[in-house]
Amino acid sequence: MRGGLSGSYFDSQWLRAPATMVRLDAGIDFDFGEGLVTPYARDYVSIRWAGKLLVPSSETFTFFLSAMGGGARLWVNHKLIVSSGMSPADADGQLTALEELRASTELEAGDWVDIVVEYRHSTGAAAVHLEWSSPSRSR
Predict the structure, then answer these.
(1) Prediction pTM value
(2) Per-residue confidence (pLDDT) for residue 36, from 0 to 100
(3) 117 and 29 Cβ atoms separated by less than 8 Å
(4) Residue ranges covered by each domain of the chain
(5) Worst-scoring range by mean pLDDT, 16-20, 82-86, 108-112, 125-129?
(6) Are 48 and 7 in contact (CB under 8 A)?
(7) What are the pLDDT digits (tens) for 113-134?
(8) Over 80: is that where the pLDDT of 93 sits?
(9) How many whole angstroms separate alpha carbon 52 and alpha carbon 111?
(10) Of 47, 59, 109, 138, which alpha carbon lies 20 to 30 A from 33's?
(11) Do residues 10 and 46 make contact, with C-beta atoms less than 8 angstroms apart?
(12) Which listed CATH number (3.30.499.10, 3.50.50.60, 3.40.50.720, 2.60.120.380) goes with 5-133?
């Protein structure tokens, strides 16, 4: 069975439709550098990934969201748990260096958890990464 997150790539930094590309990404582990983020642009772009995670064990999971060149948000089960630099008011406060944001939440074994990550990029080098860990699982 093939898995991943559905990534919608926008030529707008505010996630405005239509998406210029939609694809299944195995994970969120991208270092675009100064290159193209979407098929047509490298600056003032955004990406929304959405999918589900099957929880392997009941325990506290810590999510690590790293971003550079803009802002990032993470929802787990429709609850915003990480956010930095994503509102229009934050446009001047973009993450210029790779910054790691983290949050922890209790999850139950066997549940399918909704995951949504949004990434906004203004200018310069672009990168975004999502990882998770728990007491029984390494990062």
Answers:
(1) 0.90
(2) 95
(3) no
(4) 5-133
(5) 82-86
(6) yes
(7) 999 999 999 888 999 999 999 9
(8) no
(9) 10
(10) 138
(11) yes
(12) 2.60.120.380
123: tokens are 């200018």
Burial environment of residue 126 by CB neighbours within 10 A (0 to 12, 13 to 18, 19 or more): buried
Task: Provide the residue type at 34 as one letter.
Answer: E
DSSP code per residue over the chain? ----EEEEEESSTT-PSSPSEEEEESS-EEEEETS-SSSS-SSSEEEEEEEEEE--SSEEEEEEEEEESEEEEEEETTEEEEEES-SGGGGGG-B-S-EEEEEEEEE-TTPEEEEEEEEEE-SS-EEEEEEEEBTTB--
